[in-house]
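Meet my pick.
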Amino acid sequence: MNQSTRTQLIQSGICFFIAILMLLSSGLRFPYIDNATDDYFSESIIEAGAAYASCRVLNASVSVVQESSLHLEPAGVGISLAVGQVLDPINDMTERLSDILVTAITSIGVQKLIYEIAISVVFQLLACLLLLLSVLLWFNNPKVASLTTTLMKVAVLLVIARTCLPISALANSYINDNFFAEKIHEARAELSIGSAELEKLGNLALPEIDGVLGTIENSTSLLKQKSDEFKAALINTAQNMSQIVEALLKLAYLYIGMFLIQIIILPLLAFWLMVKMTNSLFYTHITMISHGHSGS
């Protein structure tokens, strides 16, 4: 057996052996990168979901108060105090923040789905390429040799594509841990403190009184008591209004920032890397931006 045949046998055997291992190891994973990526996706979805839940609880409290008035009607003589207009700014901000959070959760979920598909598919494709290479390596035809080189470059490109999203997720995780996480936690704490009075405002009600005579005798004190309670709750809510709106705004721009980084900036960087690697491997001149040419 000459040296050339021995080399072909070794290369073909290596390709065949690796391909069989990949086919038998369905969903092959990178030990550290994939585990960290899984943690990032899980924590991000949980955190965004918790923020969304807090937002919806606040929105529900506001809606309860807006859709009802405080009715004080002892002995048929009553007053009605409405507070809907006071809470309109909070209601508007919670609706907008809810939309932002739904978008963020959806984007993270889509990335997680793409990542899981990549785990299942990429190495299976690589295995098929390697099996084909193990056969093509035995041919000395120049055209077959060119095809073999192209397939090897495609295999390298698949490995790069497989690692791009996990690396992007790790970059997101680093940015989130070192910038966004603490600020989001602070904003949620401020929102929780500021909105505490809304529950009191929504739970104001007349105590039950037995008999019409008892109601008439206590009408004055009941009206004063409920009016004082309502006034105190409304004043506290109004005082906390700026804090609630500020916390909602802070959460909104923080999640918009996360969305821009996760969906636009880092994917563009990953695409730029893919373009550079493709141009380098296949000697092409692909550009990220297509320039149109107008005819004269």
